[in-house]
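Tokens as discussed.
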């Protein structure tokens, strides 16, 4: 059963809508411990001073901000706590904007928003207003001692809150202009046409269940086999190295041809399967 990670209210003008916040994702990250090779003794990491080689205990560690090489300003916990955003329980809506105005680069993490029983009517009123105007709400709220910029957006029959990066956290594209290699000349009409064919042949509706984390599945399979005592031979780790495209048109045409063959083979298999059933 899902558990809320945060509870509070949405401030919508003078209207307060009590809500609960839930995670939208369940991380599937694999965690490995570091062990000594000869006896599998688990390694514990210690914080060592490089000057005298002695271990530094947690109570002897302070926070320092480097202002120049090896020059630090020490900031204590009390000073940081005094500056921390007030831990209010309010998601304060500041603006309503069109979703297409927000560059996807700004998106960080997402959460489901569900209403408390007493605020169902107000919650669905906000949903209806956002659906009618086709706008999303820009808001601020405090989560885990940090003030977040976020948007509230409609997703089917409920609201989703997505935290955003602040503009100062985004690397401007202009900073990469010196690294960008410009094309000597624009693509020819023939090249563009065949590229459009390739895009069209790969076009479909987005189906997230289609894409699998193949690496994680292989690692879990490896772990299962080794846990059962099976001897596993590691496959070759050689990877295909990218090479220079000698003939762009030939590569495009070959790609289109290969995809057409795959689709034809797939259609033939479906017909055979249907006939057998």
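Sequence:
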């Amino acid at each position: 059963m899902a558990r809320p990670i945060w509870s509070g209210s949405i401030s919508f003008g003078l209207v307060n809508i009590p809500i609960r916040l839930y995670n939208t994702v369940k991380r599937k990250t694999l965690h490995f411990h570091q062990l000594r090779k000869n006896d599998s003794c688990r390694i514990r990491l210690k914080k060592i001073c490089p000057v005298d080689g002695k271990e530094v205990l947690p109570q002897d560690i302070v926070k320092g901000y480097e202002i120049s090489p090896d020059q630090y300003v020490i900031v204590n916990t009390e000073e940081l706590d005094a500056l921390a955003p007030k831990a209010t329980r309010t998601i304060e809506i500041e603006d309503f904007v069109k979703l297409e105005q927000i560059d996807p680069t700004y998106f960080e993490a997402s959460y489901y928003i569900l209403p408390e029983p007493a605020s169902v009517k107000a919650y669905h009123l906000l949903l209806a207003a956002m659906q009618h105007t086709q706008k999303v709400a820009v808001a601020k709220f405090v989560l885990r001692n940090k003030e977040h910029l976020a948007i509230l957006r409609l997703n089917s029959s409920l609201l989703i809150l997505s935290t955003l990066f602040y503009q100062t956290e985004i690397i401007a594209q202009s900073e990469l202009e010196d690294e960008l290699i410009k094309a000597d000349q624009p693509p020819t009409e023939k090249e563009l046409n065949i590229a459009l064919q390739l895009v069209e042949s790969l076009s479909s509706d987005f189906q997230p269940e289609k894409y699998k984390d193949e690496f994680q599945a292989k690692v879990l399979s490896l772990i299962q086999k080794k846990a059962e005592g099976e001897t596993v031979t590691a496959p070759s780790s050689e990877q295909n190295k990218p090479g220079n495209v000698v003939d762009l048109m030939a590569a495009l045409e070959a790609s289109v041809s290969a995809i057409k063959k795959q689709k034809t083979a797939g259609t033939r298999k479906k017909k055979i399967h249907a006939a057998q059933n």
